[in-house]
Fold these 2 entries.
Entry 1:
Amino acid sequence: MGPISMSNRFAPALQTRIDPQADKSADSTSRPVPTSCETASAAETEALGATLAAGLSGGDVVLLRGDLGAGKTTLARGIARALGVKGPICSPTFTIGNRYVGTTEVVSHLDLYRVAELAAEEPGLLEDYAASGEIALVEWPRDAEAELPDATLAITISHSGGDRRCIEVEDLR
């Protein structure tokens, strides 16, 4: 992994972690700028999450996309740990959302895998987590993206064989 040119606030944090083959022609007015990198282990995926956390602040919404077992929760754990969250950080698959208090921010972690249709859920389900000035990490956002128009980042994680993961980061601002 080497440096790339990125026209967003995550560029300094990602400078040394992103694929050098990504688009280097982006100027400061272009958006969004997808970038990609590969991690070789869960520890590296978690470390990338910590790197991304440096560019997040209250009110940011991060969409985490990927297949089952891709590493969405691992990346979320890295973000939360970097923000000072202590204790277990696990996927809220059966509870829909967990809220963690860190030393610098409150982190809302949502898992919408079991939410078949957002319209059939309790009104305001996402607002409690995503519109409260907290950093919201949303796994399985597929049907909720229209409800999250102010998302900051979209991160797609895919298997690359063994413990390797290809991670694409797109700044949506």
Note: The longest strand covers residues 153-159.
Entry 2:
Amino acid sequence: MSEPTLYEAIYIMNVSVSEEEAEQLIGILEAEVEEVGGEVLGTRDFRTRRLAYPIDGQTHGTYKLMYFYGTGAVVDHALTEMGIRQQILRARIFVANMQAVVGGLQPGGDKELAAAAEAAKAAREAEAAEAAAVAEAAKAADEAAAAEAAEAAEAVEEAPVAEEAPAEEPASEAGESEEADESADSDEAPSDDEAPATEE
């Protein structure tokens, strides 16, 4: 099983939600994350702000930022839970950038977050090294296959030449037999026309 990753979930709550309802909703979302194996570090309030564009007729929203450790399954579950809540206008979850984490989430949290950042960085570097090794192995396999294909092509080109060589020998044997026939003809007695004249 993979090591949990630190995520940040940002969600925008409808401004019509009372403070008490907001606290209740935060508690529900944190409980949902922990129910599927996540570990919530805390939720930050980023106050009510004007939205970049209207969402469901709302021009303002209350921003919340929740940090938690989890896996992909925890992220999927959290997004589903945020998506079905009518009080939440929008929600997104990202892998937390340790240098951008706002304040400490708990006493001594800065050290823990820094250690988590280092662990995440080491894991990413290990994954990148493994991916590079796999790519290198695939490249070597492709080069080996190309070399085999080239050798096979050379063997195919040389094979007809080897077959043609014996075919040329009978032709030379035929030439030798023609020469032998000619010499045999010359060994025979000359014809009357060619007979040398004798003295009478």
Note: The longest strand covers residues 39-55.
